[in-house]
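Quick one, probably user error.
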């Protein structure tokens, strides 16, 4: 007989409910990250009291912090205080992003992540299962930290060109601030996207699609006003915006060697940011004054 809150069965449901370890972990992490518990309960198909028990298990396990937190990079913004379940979860994710970014999936060590986050390694394995699942969780966390929706353009702004300039610059700034996550994305591409399960693909697309939709609205408005060229495609403008920014940030070392400049220096980063904005505006803007 499975114990209450166990992975294979849940006591108190009136039947032998089966739920995977992964679904259980995802449900708990959704709650500790601030989602409404009742909504999570309905979406995963378990009673709220059972979900509350799982969350309490998570809190109890993560509060057994037998190893002090160690900062891998002293210049990096410190992790959120880990005296709560959400704080511990965020600390684990930030430590995982750093470890995977610095060493890649193959070279990263789960015990190093546990030590850096200040959590018990056994508890870490309990909640994330294995290294692959931890990498997938870190990948999703990085997309969420990028907060792409907060960089969406103001479709009703006074100037289409100004709104596009703001969007292009904000996306570059977001990628630059989260360039460790950009390294995770590059590593995932090297592995052929093996961690991009269908559910994760859906969530990532859900973060990006609204921005492309708003970008499409800006393009249509600019075309009506005669300031943007015809036959522009919002998806390809988005891809150009991401590619021009991310390639520079993830290949800065070899690019620096190629051109004989230290492109990681702050002034060079600023110059490239300005170039990205100017380049993209030139690509979409009409050559003459509005009709």
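Nope, works fine. Designed sequence:
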């Amino acid at each position: 007989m499975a114990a209450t809150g166990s992975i294979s069965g849940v006591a108190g449901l009136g039947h032998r409910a089966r739920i995977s370890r992964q679904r259980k972990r995802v449900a708990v992490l959704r709650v500790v990250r601030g989602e409404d518990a009742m909504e999570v309960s309905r979406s995963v198909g378990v009673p709220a009291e059972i979900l509350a028990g799982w969350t309490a298990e998570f809190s109890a396990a993560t509060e057994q912090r037998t190893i002090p937190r160690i900062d891998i990079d002293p210049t990096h913004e410190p992790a959120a205080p880990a005296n709560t379940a959400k704080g511990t979860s965020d600390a684990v994710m930030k430590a995982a992003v750093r470890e995977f970014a610095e060493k890649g999936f193959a070279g990263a060590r789960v015990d190093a992540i546990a030590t850096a986050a200040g959590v018990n390694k056994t508890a870490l394995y309990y909640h994330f299962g294995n290294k692959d699942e931890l990498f997938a969780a870190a990948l999703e966390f990085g997309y969420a930290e990028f907060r792409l929706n907060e960089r969406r353009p103001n479709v009703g702004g006074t100037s289409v060109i100004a709104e596009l300039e703001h969007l292009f610059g904000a996306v570059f700034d977001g990628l630059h601030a989260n360039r460790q996550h950009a390294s995770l994305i590059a590593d995932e591409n090297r592995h052929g996207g093996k961690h991009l399960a269908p559910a994760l693909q859906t969530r990532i697309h859900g973060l990006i699609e609204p921005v492309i939709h708003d970008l499409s609205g800006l393009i249509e408005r600019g075309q009506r006003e005669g300031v943007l060229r015809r036959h522009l495609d919002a998806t390809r403008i988005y891809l150009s915006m991401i590619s021009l920014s991310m390639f520079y940030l993830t290949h800065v070392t070899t690019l620096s060697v190629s051109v004989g400049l230290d492109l990681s220096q702050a002034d060079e980063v600023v110059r490239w940011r300005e170039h990205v904005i100017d380049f993209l505006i030139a690509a979409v803007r009409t050559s003459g004054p509005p009709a």
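The chain has three domains: 1-62, 85-131, 147-284.
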